[in-house]
Amino acid sequence: MKTLLVRTHEAWLATLMAALMSKKTENKRVLTEFSDILWRHFTWIEHDLIVRGVDYDYDRENIPIKVERLGVLIADIVRRMNDLEMLLVRCEDEALKDRIRTDLEYMRYALGKLEDEEVTAFDMHRTYRDIELDKEATDALTLFLFEESYKEYELIMIYNYLQAHSDDAFLNRIFQILIDESFFHLRSFGEMMAEMGILGVPRVIHQSLYKVSDIEKFLLDGIEEEIAAKEQCKELSDAVASKSDELAKFFDFINYQENYHIELMRDAVEHFRKKQADG
Ligand SMILES: [Fe+2]
Ligand SMILES: [Fe+2]
Questions:
Q1: Per-residue confidence (pLDDT) for residue 1, from 0 to 100
Q2: Whether residue 136 is found in the same domain as residue 173
Q3: Alpha-carbon span 253 to 229, nearest angstrom
Q4: What is the pTM of this model?
Q5: I need a labelling partner for 63 at 20 to 30 A (CA). Which of 17, 162, 241, 263 fits?
Q6: Could you tell me the distance, in angstroms and rounded to a whole number, from the CA of residue 230 to the centre of ligand 2?
Q7: pLDDT at 40
Q8: CB within 8 A of 67, min separation 6: which ones?
Q9: Residue among 177, 171, 155, 180 at smallest CA distance from 268
Q10: In sequence order, what DSSP letters do the residues of 176-231 get, joined into one string?
Q11: How far is the CA of 242 from the centre of ligand 2 (A)?
């Protein structure tokens, strides 16, 4: 079951990356939906492990995604799904097992029907649409996208872990919002990376980041990180503002979203403190 969690994590990321690199609307739509379904499978399998008291983590193998044709990656995803189906025999929750099995069956069928397409998400041309950026702005944007896409993946996993281990409805509501928001940021940055030919899978996150013992300290550090992320967005929007109104507006938009994350996290800290005080 632990292996099933790891393999589902990998299949989810492979499918998410395939969605990001696809340029055909229908392929992108299907791959995005399927990656969301695999993400949900992941959280359900995780819940099952927690209920049965099994220790687990978010370690996984590296996921090779550099392909020239989407069909090659899709064939790899289908192979991953075959592996998942074999691992399912160890799932004791019959309802969950049936659900995942029937999902996998349909997804493999539907993936087999997708039209092949050329992939340019790794050609390193580093231009975004028809926007002309100088080398400095291009470097700043590249660095930002690499760092922040990893950060967003990290946040999804951390908040997911905290939520999975908490039965506090107030905190879980906030964790869920932060997970959804990080998904949006990860997808937005990933789309840009694919468009610029620099798409990459976020690196594996260390256990010490999500197996946190001091939630209050974690939240306070998180607020500092959000403030830093805001600063980065602001710097980037300044760096590209003279060249591209479109990019400047987009990074301001992301920046303002971080304000709300900070407020939510402050609410979480306050709630957490009150709960501790009430003992
Ligand atoms: Fe963000
Ligand atoms: Fe944020």
A1: 86
A2: yes
A3: 13
A4: 0.96
A5: 162
A6: 8
A7: 98
A8: 73, 119
A9: 171
A10: HHHHHHHHHHHHHHHHHHHHHT---PPPPPPHHHHS-S-HHHHHHHHHHHHHHHHH
A11: 25
Identity (one letter) of the amino acid at 37? I
Question: CA quadruple 123, 125, 129, 135: dihedral positive or negative?
Answer: positive
Residue 241: what pLDDT? 86
Question: Ligand nearest 184 Cα, by number?
Answer: 1
The whole-number pLDDT of residue 151 equals 95
Give the domain CATH number at 233.
1.20.1260.10
Output the CA 90–ligand 2 centroid distance in Å: 37
Ligand 1 centroid – CA 57 distance (Å): 23
* Boundary-marking domain end, from 61, 86, 119: 119
Which ligand is nearest to the Cα of residue 233, counting in written order?
Answer: 1
Same domain, yes or no: 132 and 264: yes
Structure tokens at 2: 């632990």
Structure tokens at 7: 């393999």
DSSP string of 238-271?
HHHHTT-HHHHHHHHHHHHHHHHHHHHHHHHHHH
Domain with 71 in it: 1-119
Of 55, 85, 119, which closes a domain?
A: 119
Number of domains in the chain: 2
Q: How far is the CA of 258 from the centre of ligand 1 (A)?
A: 6
Rounded mean pLDDT for each run of 10 residues along the chain, 279 residues in total: 96 98 98 98 97 97 98 98 96 96 98 98 94 92 96 97 96 98 98 98 96 92 93 91 92 95 96 90
